[in-house]
Amino acid sequence: MTTIPVILAIGGHDPTGGAGLQADIETIHGMRCRAISLVTCLTRQDSSNVISIHPQPTDAFTRQWQTLLNDIQPDAIKIGLIGSHGLVPAIRQCLQTARVPVVLDPVLAAGGGTPLANNELVTGINEQLLPETSLLTPNRAEARRLGNCKSMDQAARQLITAGAANVLITGADEATGEQVSNRLYLNGTPSRNWLWPRLPHSYHGSGCTLASACACGLARGLTVLQAVEEAQQFTWDSLNSATRPGQGQYLPTRCKT
Ligand code: PLP
Questions:
Q1: What phi and psi, each to the nearest 5 degrees, are found at residue 252?
Q2: What is the value of pTM for the model shown?
Q3: Which of 107, 206, 250 to probe ligand 1 with, by most ligand atoms within 8 A of CB?
Q4: Does 75 sit in the ligand 1 pocket, CB within 6 Å?
Q5: Which of 125, 119, 132, 122 is nearest to 163 (CA)?
């Protein structure tokens, strides 16, 4: 019997299923791994924008990660929307207990524009979570805010200095031409760039898909470069077959029948 890698997804619930934990679980399933999950917050949203966030109490979250990790050892962890700075120390403890590769997608704002992180949460991510992170996957706006500088190269250097082992800055949020440029900054080696044909719509949950797919690759023992390469292809395919069940953004199709 072969074992199936287990990915722990830590994030928020998005009722549309486009982003958040449901996106993570679909991706992990689509990548032939098994998902376990911890809820940081519920959200009220539709496929156009996030309306409000309802964080999980810290003690309930702490008791749940302890109960879960006492039972099941994950092979990698993916973190998405945290929603409240009060959960940061609990998440850090969880990461330090599990001691497996960590992919952190720093969700700071919704695609529709609603802010999803205040300055205290940004500080908490920088100071407490980056030192535990194997791969950080900000978009350009998130890299600028977390790294506190305008240049992407400088922001990546700053984030690696703050403790992130490797940084993948995605470019879809600010792409204007025919292509989307994603750049991977591997700690200590030259960065690597990919250009992807830009797809025609606006998509909900692309970042969750990419980061979860990276976590699956790392769980299977791929290098960061291999995991990022494979995850981008999985994400592009999911977006290329997205559908629009509501009236807002397109939702990726991550599990093919
Ligand atoms: N809601 C939740 C729970 C999320 O995790 C995210 C992103 O990760 C969003 C909303 C925003 O998704 P998007 O940036 O694709 O609009």
A1: -60, 150
A2: 0.97
A3: 107
A4: no
A5: 132
